[in-house]
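// run 5 | inverse folding | seed 20
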């Protein structure tokens, strides 16, 4: 009887456990994964200045299954907006698990962008556009 009671109690406890939903949000399914910055572009009027980035000094970002953008250390990067547009469609990430702002942000003096645009130009290519014509060209990490 004692064994049966313990079995029923254990079964009840495991049934009550909530499984974390790791299904990608349909809006971001095509960009979920790790991305490496390979080039920066800055637009000044009619001119565009392009600066390639060496792999050793490039940033890696991760776009999680819930649409949250993280830096290479697993933190939310400094000064990014809480929502963005993906291929012209507005998207607000809804964190499925807690996220932390990068601790280095307490030392950063930056003006946050009101919007960020992500445009997937090819399956493994992404353009991240922030304020004032600043673009980062990213490629998918394999």
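// decoded
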């Amino acid at each position: 009887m004692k064994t049966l009671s313990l079995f029923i109690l254990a079964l009840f406890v495991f049934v009550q456990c909530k499984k974390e939903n790791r299904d990608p949000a349909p809006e971001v399914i095509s960009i979920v994964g790790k991305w490496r910055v390979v080039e920066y572009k800055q637009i000044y009027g009619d001119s565009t200045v392009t600066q390639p980035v060496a792999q050793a000094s490039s940033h890696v970002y991760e776009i999680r299954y819930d649409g949250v953008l993280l830096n290479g250390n697993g933190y939310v990067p400094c000064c990014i907006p809480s929502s963005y547009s993906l291929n012209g469609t507005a998207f607000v990430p809804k964190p499925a698990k807690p996220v932390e702002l990068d601790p280095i942000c307490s030392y950063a003096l930056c003006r946050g962008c009101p919007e960020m645009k992500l445009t997937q130009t090819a399956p493994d290519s992404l353009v991240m556009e922030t304020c004032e014509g600043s673009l980062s060209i990213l490629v998918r990490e394999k």
